[in-house]
Amino acid sequence: MTAIPLHKGLYGRPAPYPEACEPLEEVGAARPADAAAAMAFALARLTGAADPRPLVLVTTAAWVRERGRPFARGLVRWGAGPGRLVWVRANKEAEALWALEEALKSGAVAGGLASVEAPAFVATRRLDFAARAGKAVGMLVRVEPAQDLSAARRRWRIESRPSGGEAFDAAAPGATRLRAELVRRRDGPPGAWTLEQDDETGRLRLDPGLADHRVDAVEPGGVDVVRRLASAAA
Amino acid sequence: MRSSREGSTSSAASRPPPPEDALHEGAPFALVEGGAHGLTLLALNRAARAAGLYRGQSHADARAILPDLLSAPAEPERDLAALKRLALWAERYSPCVAADARAGGYEGLLLDMTGGAHLFGGEAALLADLRGRLAGAGVPARLAIADTPAAAWGLARFSAHDLSTHDGVVAPAGRTREAIAGLPMEALRLEAEALSLLRRFGLKRIGDLYGLPRAGLARRFRGEAGLRLVERLDQALGAASEPLVPERPAPLYRAWTQFAEPLTDIEGVGFHLPDLARTLAGELERDGQGARRLRLTAFRVDGRVTTIEAGLSASSAAPAHMTRLLREKGLERLDLGFGVDALMLAACRAEPAWTRQGEMAGGPRAQAGDSQAADSQALAGLIDRLQARLGEGAVRRPALRESWVPERSEAWTPAAPAQPPAPAEADARLRPILLLDPPEPVEAIAELPDGVPARFVWRRAPRQVVKADGPERLSPEWWRDPAAGRTENPALARTRDYYRVEDDQGRRYWLFREGLYNREDLDRAPSWWMHGVFP
Q1: What pLDDT score does A111 carry?
Q2: Which positions in chain A touch B375 (Cβ < 8 Å)?
Q3: Which of B490, B491, B472, B486 is nearest to B408 (CA)?
Q4: Both B7 and B131 in a single domain?
Q5: Which range is least confidently modeled, A73-77, A204-208, B3-7, B440-444?
Q6: Across the interface, do B431 and A73 touch by the CB < 8 Å criterion?
Q7: Looking at residue B163, what is its pLDDT?
Q8: Cβ contact A160–B468 (<8 Å)
Q9: B39-59: average pLDDT
Q10: B172 and B284: one domain?
Q11: Is pLDDT of B418 > 90?
């Protein structure tokens, strides 16, 4: 039996945060109250690529009722300016999935984001194909993290984190900080990262830990999975 | 103008239907309406007319003459609805169809056939075709075609020909004067007083008026009735114009196809749709136009139409796009009934074709300009398809507005591919990405009455505030009516103090307190509301 040093991860060092997007990714909020954080994370990943095409936001009626409607003045800070944003209001989840698929395969949009609860495996597979056909990125934002089957190549789990505090006002909330855990991926080991929004660019960056040393810049990647793999190898 | 009128007796479309056997056996039947002097006959079938009954006779008199007269109350609204339905169906003959719904059993349709009769093999053949189709749909009709609507109106109703067996009267072009000379005065659509006056003078036929001096005629028939006499005569003879008001504005471009055998399944319609779209696109392209709204009309054999419509966010003359859009809208929504024998695809709204000038050829950005135009077109197509399936207004784009009030600071307008103009300067203030609209009430506890909240309960979950930023004070827009927003949900009738707060779980919210302590609206204490969620 060969021992794998757990603190180093499977490949010897913690996996880097994957900046590039897969055609279809799934972003789940750790708890329902983290829905906004999950949506912001998905948007930040969509707008990360330098693609000037519009972005499509698909919501179901139930989701809007429960979580609120998109607010363009706030979305501007996440790279989705009013000139790029298209909001599609679907009634039911099946319509939302159809609308996202249409948008992705049309080739007219850089990416699409849909709020869905429980997409069927076939639907996610169709979305994956559509996204590759249209050279776009699809993001499924789910409120309840699920273990079900999905064709999404990455499955994220997003949790809000206490912010580091404002530089000039210790009592005020600082820049958005969240913990993104890559629960499942095809091209490498899972991992978890704490990300913070950059005030100037609006992009998410790895928390450098300079301003606030209490937060680890990089957490040991996917310890559970590594341990499981190790026991399987044994 | 060649104009054709088709007069159908009002009993044809009325419900409840008279007993079937009674009608077939030729039993006298009448529709009655209540009037100032009791029930009067409004419409009669042939058997009743043969027995000597007439329109306007009192029901009691009629029953005295003919004790076994069957009658049913008239339903003018349903007659009108049926007439309008028939008018839509008649668009297969002409884009300009007016439903002439003047009360009193004289309802009918007016079709402007100017320059269109040859498409049906001439005027006589047109009438025969129209009559055959109407008969197939169970609508008895009296048809006439003449130079003016007024002449056609009179000929259809008062011609000496037996129009129940005859196809219809064709008044030869340019000879209206002779054609209507023999008609009774009623054919001029005159008021009752004018008619009785004419009868007293012994003037019975329209031709009797031709020889009389016009000035004297106008003077003698003074007042309302007199003016109408000369005006009506002019309208019938074509000296005064009488424009038709079509039921629906005539579509600008249309393509249509007819089938020898009626189609009964949707697949058949889908099979013919691409051809129609190609024809329509050809017409549009010829004029440099693109469709903004499409209407597919299927003409049923039973004298009704069934339609679907689809809007386009940018004008387009691409047949493939039109076909796809209508399919997306759902051809299965067409109710084909017992079959359709004609399909029409019309562009009800058209605009100059959507083109965008690229960069100069050979320029450094020519390629980029082309791809941008292609992207815009792809986006327009996407928006159309989404709207066709999800409904108009389902696809929206934000337009920022100049207002501090969060609800009013942006509008989500129905999408168009052209980008909405963004405001000149970006707003640097922090705003949530999800807005609760309307705001939700929150129970909050603050250390000071007008201070930062210490904890709050939202959706029954208590939350401890760890960090807070505020207040950001937004005053009501005094130039708006403050009373308009005074409901249980605050629509900025009072001052709001907004706080950005973070709870102990690291979630960030946007709360506001509505109202100022002891300074605003003293009979209502300030209240707390949740307005949005930050990531």
Answers
A1: 92
A2: 53, 108
A3: B491
A4: yes
A5: B3-7
A6: yes
A7: 63
A8: no
A9: 85
A10: no
A11: no
- Asked if B253 and B278 count as a contact pair (C-beta separation under 8 A), the reply is no
CA of B107: how far to CAs of B5, B8, B76, B84, B104, in Å?
A: 10, 7, 10, 11, 8
Q: Is B344 among the domain residues?
A: yes
Nearest CB to A68 within list B436, B466, B504: B436
- What is the extent of the structural domain holding B509? 434-534
Structural domains of chain A, with CATH:
21-160+172-233 (3.40.50.300)
Q: Chain A residue closest to B420 (CA)?
A: A83
- The residue among B154, B179, B204 that closes a domain is B179
Tell me if A86 and B395 make a contact (CB, 8 A cut-off): yes
Q: B407 CA to chain A: closest CA distance, Å?
A: 9
Task: Look up the CATH number of the domain holding residue B341.
Answer: 3.30.1490.100
Q: Are residues B343 and B466 both part of a single domain? A: no
Contact call for A68 and B504, based on CB within 8 A: no
Residues of chain B with C-beta less than 8 angstroms from the C-beta of A198 = none
Number of structural domains chain B divides into: 3
Contact B389 A98 (CB under 8 A): yes
Report percent pLDDT > 70 for chain B. Answer: 85
Among the ranges given (A4-18, A178-192, B505-519), the one the predictor scored with the smallest mean pLDDT: A4-18
Answer whether residue B11 shows pLDDT above 50: no
User: What CATH number is given to the structural domain containing B149?
Assistant: 3.40.1170.60
Chain A positions touching B432 (Cβ under 8 A) are: 36, 68, 71, 74
Q: Map tokens 């928390």 to a residue.
A: A207
User: CB–CB of A107 and B410 under 8 A?
Assistant: no
A163, B508 contact by CB (below 8 A): yes
Q: Is residue B373 part of a domain?
A: no
Q: Is residue B59 within 8 Å of B66, Cβ to Cβ?
A: no
Q: Helix (H, G, I), strand (E, B), or coil: what is residue B482?
A: helix
Query: What ipTM describes this predicted complex?
Result: 0.83
Nearest CA in chain B to A29: B535
CA angle B342, B345, B351 (to 5 degrees): 160
Task: Mark whether B171 and B288 lie in a shared domain.
Answer: no
Render A143-177 in DSSP notation, one character per residue: SS---S----SEEEEEEEE-----SS-TTS--S-E
The answer to whether the Cβ–Cβ distance between A171 and B469 falls below 8 Å is yes
Determine if residue B144 is left, alpha or beta; phi over 0 gives left, psi from -120 to 50 gives alpha, anything else beta.
Answer: beta
Q: Is the same domain home to B270 and B156?
A: no
- Domain-embedded: residue B205: no
Q: Alpha helix (H) ranges present in chain A?
A: 35-46, 61-67, 72-75, 93-106, 121-133, 223-233
For residue B489, pLDDT beyond 80: no
pTM for the full model?
0.70
Task: Tell whether B172 and B317 lie within a shared domain.
Answer: no
Are B32 and B171 part of one and the same domain? yes
- Confidence class of residue B457 from pLDDT cuts 50, 70 and 90? very high
Chain A: give the shortest CA distance to residue B320, in Å. 14
Q: Which one of A24-28, B228-232, B467-471 scores highest in mean pLDDT? A: A24-28
Q: Which of B378, B390, B394 sits opposite A108 (nearest CB)?
A: B378
Phi-psi region of B451 (alpha: psi -120 to 50; beta: other; left: phi over 0): beta
Domain boundary, last residue among B160, B179, B198? B179
The C-alpha atoms of residue B78 and residue B160 are separated, in whole angstroms, by 30
Q: B392 in a domain, yes or no?
A: no
Q: In the 8-state DSSP scheme, what is residue B418?
A: S
Q: Do A177 and B532 touch (CB under 8 A)?
A: no
